[in-house]
């Protein structure tokens, strides 16, 4: 089935592209599913389990993600409920305090 894209307007092209991408995703998922079935069948045919081969790596990844929040290192003197761990983008109150002449050690908890 050939589609003459020269006769399509912008909306039709956008719709065609989104449908093609959705179909491409479906085909990829089908292929991954078939490959997964093949690998599991090979493992089972040899008399092993997934964990025997891969050492339960699925659990190790999950444990790493659950590190939780980091303890705060800095506190806003004007509003003690506002804290910052020192990671990521500096909060506005922290930058404002520095501009006002405070030092990082003055804001440390």
UniProtKB/TrEMBL annotation:
Keywords: Cytoplasm, DNA-binding. It is found in: Cytoplasm, Nucleoid. The keyword Protease does not apply. It holds the Pfam family Histone_HNS. Residues 64-109 form the DNA-binding protein H-NS-like C-terminal domain. InterPro entries: H-NS_C_dom, H-NS_C_dom_sf. Residues 70-92 are annotated as: Disordered. SUPFAM superfamilies: H-NS histone-like proteins. Belongs to the histone-like protein H-NS family. This is H-NS histone family protein. It comes from Dyella flava.
């Amino acid at each position: 089935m050939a589609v003459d894209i020269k006769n399509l307007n912008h909306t039709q092209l956008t719709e065609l592209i989104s449908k093609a991408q959705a179909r491409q995703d479906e085909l990829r998922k089908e292929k991954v599913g078939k490959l997964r079935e093949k690998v599991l069948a090979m493992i089972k045919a040899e008399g092993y389990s997934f964990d025997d081969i891969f050492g339960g790596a699925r659990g190790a990844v999950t444990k790493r993600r659950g590190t939780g929040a980091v303890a705060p290192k800095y506190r806003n003197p004007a509003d003690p409920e506002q804290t910052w761990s020192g990671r990521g983008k500096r909060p506005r109150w922290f930058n404002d305090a520095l501009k006002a002449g405070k030092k990082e050690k003055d804001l440390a908890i």
